[in-house]
Batch of 2 targets.
Target 1
Amino acid sequence: MTTISLTDVTVSSDADSHAQGWLTVQFSNGYRIQASCPESNDNWAQGTRQLCKPGHQDGLVPTQVDELLMQAADDGSYVVLQATLPKTSIPMTYARPADEHVYMELSHKQQSVFSADFLAIAAIIFGALYGLKWLFEKYLLPKL
């Protein structure tokens, strides 16, 4: 069997085709082929799971795919193996501390070197070093 890698294609399907596990792959020149989703979802890659999940009641709206990896069968049909979707198409859940989340969203905002976290850490380090210096001068130097 031949493995085919396609780039910059559009994938869609109507409600009936999607319920039966078929997708329409449209090339930039207008040519279309039919491809089937894998039978088992045990080894679906993230993009394939997004395209083939059965939750689309109205079918799959035309979705831009950066790279589509398919396998050609002997009977002329194709099976979708892997799909790389653009970042905007993949719904993701992020778990971060709240402050970091705000900093990530406001990447254009300049970060201050003298933030409260930085100053607190610097004060702890300075205090520890000063304490070590004091211990060294009080207990170790007189014995030398």
Target 2
Amino acid sequence: MAAAIVAVLLVAIGVVLLVTGKDGKKTTAQQTPEPLGTMYTPSPTPTPDDSKGPNDVGVEVGYGVWFTPSKGWLPDWDKTKAGKNYILQQFNARGLIDGYYWVRQTELYDAKGFAEHLVDVESNGMQGVRIGKGTVCQPANPNIKACYALTYTGDWVAKNGKHVSMQGFVTAYQDKFDRVTATDAALETRVYKRRVNELVYMNNTLIKSF
């Protein structure tokens, strides 16, 4: 009878050891908490697709943006300028121009800030500058996040002191990744009304490219 009691006690002690371990601590399996809900997997960060698309025709600027020069507009002979600059030469007047179309890009400004900066740069090289009221524009392209435009007039002064009256506008386009492409377009006032559609055409081809 005594032997049976001892055997029962040993079996009971063994069960306790299996449950609690030798020193009374919980086993590793018991220390691991149960998972609460489903593990969260963050969505991948969108990245820009700057590959060439069907509307990317003519001159590549950068960030996947292109524009098509109007007929008669030629690349600027000054290759030190940033971006892409095209000029309209005066008819039968070598070395003189009637206008320019200059595209530049940045990630340091938003659309409004870059447009204002470029107008300030232009005004430093002219006399009698008048800057129009800024306008928030909404191009028909969902890839353009923001757009801002400014007009300006002023006199460009040649080396011989001759004043040339200019009229132009800066339009800045900001994409979904906050990269800004701005066009600085101007013509001599005497030809502005007749040829401004050429500037508008180039802007429209650039808008489609985004």
